[in-house]
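ugh ok fine here u go
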Amino acid sequence: MVALKIQRALAELHEGGGILYPFRNGYEKLASLLEIVPNDTWRYDESVLGGLVLYLLKQGQAARAKSYLRARNLQFEKTYWFEFLELMVALHLGERVTESKLTMWRRLERKLPLQNTLLLGLYYNVLMAMLVRVGNLDAARNAGQQSISCFREEGHSYLEHFIHIHLADIDVIEGRLRRALRGLTAAERCLVQSGLSYGNEAEVIEVIRLAVAYERGEFVKVCDGSKRLRESLMKGDSWSELFFQLTRICVLSKYFLEGLHAAQHEIELFQADYVRRHAGRATTIDVLSAMVWRLEWNPAEAERYLEMLAEVEMHSAVGGFLLAEQRVLLHQDKPTISDSPRAKIVSELQMAQSQRGQARRKSFERALSNAFKEGQIAPFLENRDALLGMSNQITSIPAFRRRPIMLRLVNKILKSVDQSYVIPGPLHKIGFSRRQYRVVAALQGGATNKQIARQLRTTEATVKYHLTSVYRMTSVSKRLELIEFMYKNGVFIEN
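structure:
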């Protein structure tokens, strides 16, 4: 009787598509079949192994899924399915995507049965994810569209909804925020149409929606949803790019709202989560550390992180574009020109850093005009030092004064930038101004008065004036005593 039950379960799995079974019949039915077959059946049957791996991925257990694929003494002849499973697991774990791996994946396409549109849709889905990881976003978008075509032909709106999320993520990276929101609406529509839900689909969509909110300067909204979403990604279905997107927006939102200590704490939380979920240290999160230290006027510490990453390849699109921006801002690379809306804003702000007079105002005008199209604010805070001392000149640009709606965005950006310089609690209590804190913060990187003046776009005399005021407020008389005061009061933290 038991043997017959096992036989029927295996027959249903094979006849229902083998490894494709959960995509056609659902994960609950798959789980019920896996409970029937003996525990070691996966060693002898590729379809059972595939079902087990896919089920574990859906439960957020990618590392455990990999252990099954790496098991010795598998008693079946491996097919293209095994390659497929290996690459799916690698993507969930955030492993490096090499050119050889991409080539191997493209070769796999020739082995696939062209009449199986569900399988082809999954193939293009994984290809898209791989291309995003290496930063080839145009090719990734094309693969995504191919995947959508296959899933629509198959009538599989549940799988289609994931592609819309992937495409929306690409749109956020490029700063196409309105299109990203349309993509999320399409994802939600597909999900409702499918009538399926296996866990955290709504939370996955919400991550990208919050990424749009971050780009528009809605940092409180990001922080309010961060804990719940982080827990959801840890326990349910997700992929590394999604995790890095959430990490980016949460760390930087915390920094702009609460300052250095809060951001560092957030970095530690996400790094620990990454180790638990994916194993190994996340280099993308190290880039965020460099970014925070740069924003905190500690270029030496920022550069230390970048030196650590000099020989390391980024395993994510998020990490790639963040790293490129930090290298430019720390004068390690020249600004690059890109066609994406966000990159245009950033490159104009980067160019403004080295310009003067009319040329500088023109760079700001172009950056702000590009921001207006999508309502973007975050790039200005991430490059906030470019705006130091420029508020009056920017608001007086004729093109903005003639358009009240645009002037409102400009004023909103300038206000957000000003508020992003968070004064630590101990200094706030004794009456530090934002300008005084900026001067003091620059000290922790060992900057001279001349270097501080250059960073803050002011004069050495002004820096000296602020330091004199700070000495009086903190009851110290020397630079080293002031630094010691900052460490004792927890303003500066040990690196």
